[in-house]
Amino acid sequence: MDIFSKGTTGISDLYATDAELYPPNGDVVKGNTAIGPVWKGAFDAGVKNVNLETVTADPAGDQIIETGRYKLSGADSSAIDSGKYIVIWKKEKGDWKLYRDIWNTSIAAK
């Protein structure tokens, strides 16, 4: 999944209205309208591609818990970061939306 395929302004549409984003080294971002600008900031900072690899996707009542690995790269495909993530999905108006989204790097601190 390439989150930028919808353009940086359409990213918020991937998230539930009451979604929460838990970025590394930052505060919780609440609501899809606040989450879109976070991803736009990453894009503006040089992240041009996000590669997500789902490892598990398990139903949990009316939600799905997904775990996986990610890779962030720049315009020239140079590696920026890689790590792991957990996403909780829920249905909103008949569509699956990201409800909780957290990730952290696998690159050792210097």
TrEMBL record:
This is DUF4440 domain-containing protein. It comes from the Bacteria. SUPFAM superfamilies: NTF2-like (SSF54427). Pfam families: DUF4440. Gene3D superfamilies: 3.10.450.50. Signal peptide: none annotated. InterPro entries: DUF4440 (IPR027843), NTF2-like_dom_sf (IPR032710). Residues 9-98 form the DUF4440 domain.
